[in-house]
C-alpha cells in the first residue's frame, strides 16, 4: 500500500509539502466554481523580459513598435499570461487536490490583451466530471480556467482535462 490505499499511487496527502486537507474527484461536481485568486501584476519590464526570451514579437518587446500595432501599446505574451495563470492554479487548487496529471487541453483562448499594471483574478469551473473507465481509482475532470479583468471580462481561457484520484474508502 502506498499513501494509505492500495492504488499504487502516492496519495496527495502524503506528498512532501502538501497539506492534509485534499480534494478528490468527488469534490468536483459539474458546475462547481473555485475562485483561485489574483495573478501577480505585470510591469512593463516583466512583459519585455519574458517576450525577449520566449515570444519576441514587437508588440511584446518594443513599446514604440507596440504603439503602432493593432494593440496601440505593449501587451503581454499570451503564453506569459497562461503560465502565470497556471501557477495560481497549481498553488491554489492542484497542490490541494489528489491530481494525477492531465491528458490534454481542449482549447486555449487569448480573449483580450493583457497590459502592464492590470489586476487580474483566476477562477476554475468544472465543466464535466466522469469516473475513469480504465482506472477505477481515478476520475476525469474537464475544467475551464479563466483569467478575469477588473471590468469582469475574460482575458484568457483554457479548457483542460485533469485526472483526479477518487476518495479512498478508508478516508
Question: How would you describe the overall organization of this protein?
Answer:
The chain is of the alpha+beta class and 171 residues long. The chain has one domain (12-165): Hotdog Thioesterase (Thiol Ester Dehydrase, Chain A, Roll). 20% of the residues lie in helices and 27% in strands. The chain contains four helices and five strands. It has helices spanning 44-54, 58-61, 63-67, 78-92; strands at residues 33-38, 104-110, 121-131, 138-148, 154-165. The chain has a five-stranded antiparallel beta sheet, with helices on one face. The radius of gyration is 19 Å and the shape is elongated. Residues 1-16 have low confidence and may be disordered.
Question: What is the topology?
Answer:
Elements: E1 33-38, H1 44-54, H2 58-61, H3 63-67, H4 78-92, E2 104-110, E3 121-131, E4 138-148, E5 154-165
Antiparallel strand pairs: 1-3, 2-5, 3-4, 4-5
Amino acid at each position: 500500500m502506498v499513501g494509505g490505499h492500495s492504488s499504487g499511487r502516492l496519495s496527495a496527502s502524503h506528498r512532501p509539502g502538501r497539506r492534509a486537507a485534499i480534494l478528490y474527484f468527488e469534490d468536483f461536481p459539474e458546475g462547481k466554481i473555485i475562485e483561485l485568486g489574483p495573478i501577480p501584476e505585470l510591469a512593463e519590464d516583466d512583459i519585455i523580459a519574458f517576450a525577449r526570451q520566449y515570444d519576441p514579437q514587437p508588440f511584446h518587446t518594443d513599446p514604440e513598435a507596440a504603439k503602432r500595432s493593432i494593440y496601440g501599446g505593449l501587451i503581454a505574451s499570451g503564453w506569459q499570461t497562461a503560465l502565470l495563470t497556471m501557477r495560481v492554479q497549481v498553488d491554489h487548487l492542484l497542490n490541494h487536490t489528489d491530481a494525477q496529471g492531465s491528458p490534454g487541453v481542449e482549447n486555449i483562448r487569448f480573449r483580450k490583451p493583457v497590459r502592464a499594471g492590470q489586476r487580474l483574478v483566476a477562477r476554475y469551473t468544472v465543466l464535466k466530471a466522469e469516473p475513469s473507465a480504465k482506472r477505477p481509482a481515478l476520475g476525469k475532470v474537464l475544467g475551464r480556467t479563466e483569467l478575469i479583468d477588473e471590468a469582469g471580462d475574460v482575458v484568457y481561457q483554457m479548457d483542460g482535462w485533469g485526472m483526479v484520484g477518487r476518495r479512498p474508502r478508508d478516508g
